[in-house]
């Protein structure tokens, strides 16, 4: 349709039809309309047939045959023939499941993420979906929050690269979304990852400067990549819930950032303005959300019940309703739904695309690159002739897909035990422990198996029922029964290797002494077990690097690499009292941002700058020699950090500004160069101007965020 035709369609719509376009219901209502009174949290949800008839979009259901039938029935009842939008959470894959986003971040490969999201989009589109609720661009610093699994970590620069890559992968290039792609929806706007105490849906309180400097960049990267939708956050921003926050949505997002796409609430968030205490009733909640700029009310009846009456009373401007409806119609037009409401979907096409063997092969490659070797006291890799005992609650467990793999097939997922059987000539198995409960019989069985093996591989972790939305934890240690299993394994005197399956950074301080090696596997997806065995056996050399720090204790949280300098920084090696420190543990995390081991080793030398004084024009070159000092090929992620030593406001101790991922043969040395540009030195000042400071800057180049002071470089920015 042309823009004129869309405008004409809008003018022909009744108020009820317009309100329907701004309402999203779950897919169950379209197939079971006679029994449609579920409860969602606090909200009773009675939906009648007229509401369904007028609605504009559908949530959380997929399948070519199913969605075609829903669309067909809807168009029969729709007076103007306006098709439905189908949206769902396709976070890290549709049916072919890739590692959780926190694991994807550990690949440090945006191009890889773009490719896998292209696969996700093809599978989702073939199943009839139009929109994916990804990427999640929330900056995360508190692993108690269950939704850290959906983020790519604690760094705004890196998160932005991954957010943009996800948008490009899902949507493709150009303004129109191809039939083998889906629209992307960046979430959750804004600063949802800063929920106090790591408790989901909790208060967020931050300054405007902090919002702009740390939290907005990743959302902006998604906007710059052309994302079609933005989802509001559940939390407050400057004491106003995001869903009713006009300054956030209209002034900042639509005005300053010039986003002209669709804004959708999160699940029930419009209705939740009432318990938030900023709306007295449904009508006030609907009025505030629409006036703030929310176009689609997801799974709440506030718009459905209230907008027409508000218009009749002249309590809201009809222009606000029309502009919201027009944006929804424009999105449907960009998807080509007016020309083909089914977008060429067929069961045959779906069957040919979904779960294709090439997709699964690529899922294994991605999982291999996502896993992080946290510890290795010369016990890995294992040889195929080693007599291995695989023990633990994840030894024969199909729960590898992660919480948001709603269309994945866990019953078809290879377990670690099955993968071991194809790699090791001599392998034994025992459960040893449930995930969270001790079982004496299982322990006894495991002890007997341990006695017969040369090496013990413990498959430990947390299930997907302990992570994701609404699953915050006050303590993020492994269950005591798993720690006991590790202790018993260590007491045998045999090498103990832990393969860890989890969706958040864990406090591993108690586990670490019992393990000679720890491989962080995350919830690794459809081919995660095969990937883990490929790394444990040495077929693949680990290359993953953390993008979120692992704390030493829950009480250390939040702990992150780019913290602000304090007035009393702890001198290296000092135990003096009157400095910013804990008296019972080090300040540093157990495993820091950017950290990850390899089966080879790398050395850094000859760090140099092209100048020690710079006026900010052109660029400043940093170079370093990186050498593979081990015996096998290896992949290293060379990381560039910068510290502004004296700023107008307090600045972080270091900030990631660039990185390069390289492959080196044994003994090979390569000179790596980075270009420092003036924009890398800019930040939001106290008056919210975006500028740099004259003065000294420190440069760190290393294989993690940790770099000794003597291996840093300094230069001065001298503005003319």
From TrEMBL:
GO molecular function, one term: beta-glucosidase activity
Fibronectin type III-like domain boundaries: 636-705
Pfam families reported for this sequence: Fn3-like, Glyco_hydro_3, Glyco_hydro_3_C
Gene3D superfamilies recorded: Glycoside hydrolase family 3 C-terminal domain, Glycoside hydrolase, family 3, N-terminal domain, Immunoglobulins
Family: Belongs to the glycosyl hydrolase 3 family.
Keywords in alphabetical order: Hydrolase
Protein name, per record: Glycosyl hydrolase family 3
Any one GO BP annotation for this protein: carbohydrate metabolic process
């Amino acid at each position: 349709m042309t823009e004129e035709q869309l405008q004409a369609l809008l003018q022909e719509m009744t108020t009820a039809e317009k309100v329907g376009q701004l309402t999203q219901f779950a897919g169950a209502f379209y197939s079971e309309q006679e029994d449609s009174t579920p409860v969602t949290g606090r909200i009773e949800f009675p939906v009648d047939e007229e509401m369904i008839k007028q609605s504009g979009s559908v949530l959380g259901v997929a399948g070519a045959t199913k969605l075609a039938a829903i669309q067909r029935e809807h168009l029969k009842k729709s007076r103007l023939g306006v098709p439905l939008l189908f949206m769902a959470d396709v976070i890290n894959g549709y049916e072919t499941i890739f590692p959780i986003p926190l694991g994807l971040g550990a690949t440090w490969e945006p191009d890889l993420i773009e490719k896998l999201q292209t696969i996700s989009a093809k599978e989702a589109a073939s199943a009839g979906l139009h929109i994916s609720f990804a990427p999640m661009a929330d900056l995360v610093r508190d692993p108690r929050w269950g939704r850290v699994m959906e983020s790519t970590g604690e760094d705004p620069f890196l998160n932005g690269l991954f957010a943009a890559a996800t948008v490009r992968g899902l949507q493709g290039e150009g303004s129109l979304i191809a039939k083998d792609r889906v629209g992307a929806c960046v979430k959750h706007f804004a600063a949802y990852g800063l929920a106090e105490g790591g408790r989901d849906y909790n208060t967020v309180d931050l300054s405007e400067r902090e919002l702009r400097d740390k939290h907005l960049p990743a959302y902006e990267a998604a906007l710059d990549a052309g994302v079609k939708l933005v989802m509001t956050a559940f939390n407050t921003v400057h004491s106003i819930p995001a869903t009713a926050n006009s300054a956030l949505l209209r002034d900042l997002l639509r005005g300053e950032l010039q986003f002209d796409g669709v804004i959708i609430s999160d699940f029930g968030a419009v209705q939740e303005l009432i318990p938030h205490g900023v709306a007295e009733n449904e009508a006030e909640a609907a009025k505030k959300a629409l006036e703030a700029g929310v176009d689609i009310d997801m799974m709440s009846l506030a718009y459905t019940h209230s907008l027409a009456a508000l218009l009749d009373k002249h309590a809201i401007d009809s222009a606000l309703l029309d502009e919201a409806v027009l944006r929804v119609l424009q999105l449907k037009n960009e998807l080509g739904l007016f020309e083909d409401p089914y977008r060429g979907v067929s069961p045959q096409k779906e069957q040919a695309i979904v779960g294709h063997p090439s997709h699964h092969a690529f899922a294994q490659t991605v999982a291999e690159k996502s896993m992080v070797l946290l510890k290795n006291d010369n016990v890995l890799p294992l040889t195929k002739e080693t007599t291995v005992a695989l023990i633990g609650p994840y030894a024969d467990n199909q729960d590898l897909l992660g919480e948001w793999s709603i269309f994945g097939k866990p019953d078809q997922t290879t377990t670690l035990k099955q993968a071991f059987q194809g790699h090791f000539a001599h392998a034994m198995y025992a459960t040893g422990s449930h995930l969270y409960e001790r079982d004496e019989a299982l322990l006894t069985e495991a002890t007997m198996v341990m006695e017969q093996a040369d090496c013990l591989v413990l498959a430990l972790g947390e299930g997907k029922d302990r992570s994701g939305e609404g699953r915050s934890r006050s303590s993020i240690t492994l269950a005591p029964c798993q720690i006991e299993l590790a202790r018993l394994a260590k007491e045998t005197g045999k090498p103990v290797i832990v393969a860890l399956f989890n969706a958040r950074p864990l406090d591993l301080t108690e586990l670490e002494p019992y393990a000679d090696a720890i491989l962080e596997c995350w919830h690794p997806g459809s081919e995660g077990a095969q990937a883990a065995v490929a790394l444990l056996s040495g077929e693949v050399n680990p290359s993953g690097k953390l993008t979120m720090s692992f704390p030493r204790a829950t009480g250390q949280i939040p702990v992150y690499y780019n913290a602000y300098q304090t007035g009393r920084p702890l001198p290296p090696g000092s135990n003096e009292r009157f400095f910013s420190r804990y008296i019972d543990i080090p300040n540093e995390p157990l495993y820091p941002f950017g950290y990850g081991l390899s089966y080879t080793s790398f050395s850094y030398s000859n760090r140099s700058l092209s100048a020690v004084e710079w006026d900010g024009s052109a660029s400043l070159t940093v170079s370093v020699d990186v050498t593979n000092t081990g015996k096998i090929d290896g992949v290293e992620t060379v990381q560039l950090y910068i510290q502004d030593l004296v700023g107008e406001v307090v600045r972080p101790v270091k900030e990631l500004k660039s990185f390069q991922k390289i492959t080196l043969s044994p003994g090979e040395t390569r000179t790596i160069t980075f270009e420092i540009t003036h924009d890398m030195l800019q930040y939001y000042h106290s008056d919210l101007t975006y500028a740099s400071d004259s003065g000294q800057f420190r440069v760190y180049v290393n294989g993690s965020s940790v770099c000794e002071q003597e291996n840093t470089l300094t230069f001065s920015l001298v503005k003319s």
